[in-house]
Automatic annotation (TrEMBL), chains A, B:
SMART domains: CoA_binding. This is Redox-sensing transcriptional repressor Rex. Belongs to the transcriptional regulatory Rex family. The keyword Transcription applies. Gene3D superfamilies: NAD(P)-binding Rossmann-like Domain, Winged helix-like DNA-binding domain superfamily/Winged helix DNA-binding domain. The gene is rex. It is found in: Cytoplasm.
Amino acid sequence: MKSEKISDAVVRRLPVYLRFLNELSRREVPTVSSQELGQKLDLNPAQIRKDLAYFGDFGRKGIGYDVSYLIEKIRQILNLDQQINVALIGAGNLGQALSNYNAYLKDNMKIVAVFDASPHKIGTQINNITIQPIDELVDTVRSNNIRIGIITVPDVEAQRVADQLVAAGIGAILNFAPTILKVPSEVRVHAADFTTDLMSLAYYLDAGKEHTEHDAKMAD
Amino acid sequence: MKSEKISDAVVRRLPVYLRFLNELSRREVPTVSSQELGQKLDLNPAQIRKDLAYFGDFGRKGIGYDVSYLIEKIRQILNLDQQINVALIGAGNLGQALSNYNAYLKDNMKIVAVFDASPHKIGTQINNITIQPIDELVDTVRSNNIRIGIITVPDVEAQRVADQLVAAGIGAILNFAPTILKVPSEVRVHAADFTTDLMSLAYYLDAGKEHTEHDAKMAD
DNA sequence: TAGATTGTTAATCGATTAACAATC
DNA sequence: TAGATTGTTAATCGATTAACAATC
């Protein structure tokens, strides 16, 4: 066990490992090598070994990694050995869709509160959770030990919601709004806006279209 | 204009620039410096200048970047000076939520077809688009010049859908299913699974909880 | 034992940042 | 002109990959 600084790139790969290990576990595969993992996950085996070695010596030379043991360890690393309570702010289409993933959010993550600004949504239920007004956000986050907030409100409201999450002592935010949130450095933010993803994908499309780069302002 | 290889990191920042530039344009701000951009977007100004300089000399020394001109240029770089047709496969909750973003997808990206496997969804409308059976995917993608596919089907079906998109000649895929898709190297895939994001965020939560690392298996 | 595979060091590769001459 | 800001080179920083001794 080192105490180097772990990079974000490493942390982002851990859930990917976990997901595949869970599948192996379901199939009752007892051990797996870094080579096998690398092949399935499109990663370099050396990278996988290095990633895991940051946190401990989980493997056995000549054998590989014990699937159940590695699952247990990664869950510990990701704090998923305890229940992590999550709040969802914004009960529009996207928010409702995400709240349905509660079932998928095994591994101890759970959306336990949903907030919305719209008066006619407040009080209604969504997946057995009663939608609360945003005024109640700070109190509810505090009293329910909510550690992560998912922002699915419109663009212009995102920063205000983030401010309230911060005020309530949130640890991390997953932001689906297309805005750069300003938060204190101890609060982790991940951008999850899919329109940005789509636009960057468009860049790679020219393969099929011959890269026609004629000078439009030639006549000058 | 260089012809170096442009890294994915650079390409992913371009839509972020574009988004903020569009806002400046709306506010009728005529020019912007790399310093201002950097401050608003939490990026190093030198990085912004370098990113843009890969594609051309868009700025003016002593002045900064002309907002409208830079918007035009970034849109060209991202192929958004033409309409990019997008298909959505999987009309569940998440798929429906995303299809509502069509309005947001200014900048010339448009979901033009929606597919689903479920017989009782086929034929119904979603945002004025008739849901088609997945059998029709290959033909529709080809005949409508669809370049990007968004996968919102369940886990186990994702690879099959990806195979069909590839067969139809798709250029890029945005994958919301928690699977590593195997596709030929000329097809670009972005993972957009939010459960993975959430799990990696959980890693950063220990700040508040004192990192209690007691050996559970001491008595041995 | 022989074969396999880890953990880790060293080498490589790539991305970010600093610094500054050029110039508007 | 003086001040501001670009484009770009060089320096730094960080992440990935190769290689291999240790060892199951």
